[in-house]
Amino acid sequence: MRDLKGKVQEDIVVAKDGTGDFLYIADALEAIRVYLPKPITVYIKEGVYKEKLEIPGTITNVTFRGDGPEKTIITYDDHTGKNYMDTFDSYTLLVWGNSLRFQDLTIQNTAGSVGQAVALHAEGDRLVFENCHFRGDQDTMFASGENSRQYYKDCYIEGTTDFIFGSATALFDNCEIHSKSNSYITAASTPEWVNYGYVFKDCKLTAAAGVDKVFLGRPWRDYAKTVFINCKMEDHVVAEGWNDWGRPQVKETTYYGEFGSTGPGANSSQRVDWAHQLSAEEAKQYTAENIFTGQTSQTNAYGFPWYGYQIDSSFNLEDSYNQLQKHFPDIQPVRNTAVAGVIEDNVDYKDLGYRRLKMDVFYPEHRQKDRLPGILMVHGGGWRSGHRSLQAPMAKALAKKGYVTAVMDYRLSLEAPYPAGVYDVKDAIKWLKSHAEKFGLDTNRVAISGGSAGGQLAALVAMTNGREAYESPSSGLTASASVHALIDMDGVLAFHHPESSEGTVAAEWLGGTYEEVPEIWDQASALHQLGEVAVPSLFLNSQYPRFHAGQDDMIKKLDKLGVYSEVHTFEACPHPFWLFRPWFGTTVNFVDGFLQKVW
What we know:
By secondary structure, the protein is an alpha/beta fold. The protein has 13 helices and 36 strands.
């Protein structure tokens, strides 16, 4: 150990079974070089690590990654009163370092109901916790530090009293907050000069059996700030919501607020009169970018915001519906809800280092013995916006008909220009084929589908089967990226074409205008890449010709090659028709009918 102290600047593996570089996390921490010149990962293999740990301020740019919160567990059992300890000595993990990430692990304090017993004490700045569990009782999480910014994504946090407390600016995104007793969830001590304290967005508030009187928060200090936005609250949350901790004067100085709360615990009309119900415009201000604004650079060693790449959500179902219903009054959005008889599996299919790309796979609950055909579905959004969930309703409808379907993340233009998104789609196909056994997928019957920008991507991927130039040189997957059929919904087939009107948005993705990079515009156009590897193709069109640029020319080429193609055009419909009724069901049937013809 003495030889390695402070010298390690490469990735580290910690394993209880001796298969790693270190047996103990503490030894790995001691070995890491101070102020690392580049990011590293400390991979903590499955095991229960009973260690009391402190990460000093000299450790930065490190990702601590486990095998999952049920498998990699960091635990200790200190508490107040034990050996004259106070709250701030009782931690399992104390974090002073900055620019650190923690993923796929549990941090817990098992002291029990003996008083304050902290699992996580976080003081560093630019800290990210993703898919982590925090288990304990009173004071489970001390999210503190007057200048500390902390981001918790897809986490589980449990406790009894004040189990999220402190002075940090912290965003809790899509987390489960679980109360184990009748008491208080938060106890913020936000400094007066800080704009945001604790912000909970899209979280679930749950409780143990018999728990029926829980307050959202009480102020540890006079200027506590805590806001819940679009959170689902069970009936353990009391109607008044907030408590002043027996100090009436803090009603004038604290800021407690809610917006869009749902569930039996969301009693906005009965909340204390000194709490706030935010307007829609006020709620829009609670973005990660606004919450985490600081005096230092927001970017990390990868060149992206330290709290994670933020997807442009300007193209979404609800806003599209609100805009389109003025022109199509009978339109109805198809929302992403569960479908009986369809199983959903959420996976990470690619690790970019700074974030992981996700895929949702759908397949019939009752599968036949024969392998099922598959469809990978690529969302649209002008190559800069959108989300995989846009394609999920159609994926589920087709899974119900007997397909293995999947929707996926891919890198958009604001994150990485072409061909990064193409690499991602090809890697998603490889991942699906590599896991064919799990889903019952027939790897010889895999189609690719996409809408708008996703249709363009799908067409390019389909027409470049087997061409290494379109596949990631760093992909570790060995399965073929080839597909066997294409479904293109309003996706352009040629960027530079008499029928095309692609301009600034396409240029942003392709790294320049046609005049600047004509070879890239042609390289990214499926029409110009179509060759002997062409596959049967279904084209589903809206009433707007510009989204079909190059389609007639492509069909002529397919006909010449003897490759089947089919075209259907919806008259008097919006561009993203596949997201809305009355076109949704017909679209699903067109896809199913086409694939049954070609397979």
